[in-house]
Specification:
Elements: E1 4-7, H1 9-14, H2 22-27, E2 31-34, H3 47-62, H4 70-77, H5 79-84, E3 102-105, H6 118-124, E4 131-136, E5 139-143, E6 146-147, H7 152-171
Parallel strand pairs: 1-2
Antiparallel strand pairs: 3-4, 4-5, 5-6
Helix pairs in contact: 3-4, 4-6
């Protein structure tokens, strides 16, 4: 039917809404992208962690270790998600003319060595804490793990204000 699936495995686990039959969907030709859902059902909102969880769950659900290998999981987190949104011509892969949203992940910590397959390592070993640089539409937003276009202290202050306001609303209900 030409549908696409946004697979949000941590949200599904947290809400106990079941296990997505990823292997069956892929075998049927369904485009499966990786999502995080929202903060209410996925506190980390970490797409790299979601790709790892999706790959591991797909293997467990299918009972086969060859389901959703690292390269396919990375594709699900990038190009398949863009395809599901109808944006694959603009985002989702590194090609001339596409928006350059990039993430540089450092694999130089001792626990991340040796590295034989960078994609497998990215998916199964690294984490969002290993992200060193981020560029959005070719412009840097994180350099050496520091926000460069957002005032971090101001952001923390704003988050605290919202935290306080929400707590006040909750206590009045």
């Amino acid at each position: 039917h030409g549908c696409h699936v946004a697979h949000c495995p941590s949200s599904n686990l947290k809400l106990t809404s079941g296990f997505a039959p990823v292997a069956a969907m892929l075998a049927a030709g369904v485009n499966v992208g990786i999502g995080t859902d929202g903060a209410a059902s996925n506190n980390r909102l970490d797409v790299l962690g979601e790709a790892r969880t999706a790959a591991l769950l797909a293997k467990a659900v299918a009972g086969r270790a060859d389901v959703l290998p690292a390269h396919a999981a990375l594709r699900a987190a990038t190009l398949a998600g863009a395809r599901g949104l109808g944006l694959e011509a603009r985002i989702g892969s590194l090609q001339p003319g596409k928006d350059a949203d990039l993430v540089a992940v450092s694999l130089d910590r001792p626990e991340l060595t040796p590295c034989y397959d960078p994609v497998s390592h990215l998916l199964y070993c690294a984490s969002r804490e290993d992200v060193r640089h981020v560029w959005v539409q070719g412009r840097p937003v994180v350099i050496d793990r520091r926000l460069v276009r957002i005032d971090a202290k101001g952001l923390e202050s704003l988050a605290f204000l919202w935290h306080t306001a929400i707590l006040e609303q909750i206590s009045h209900t």
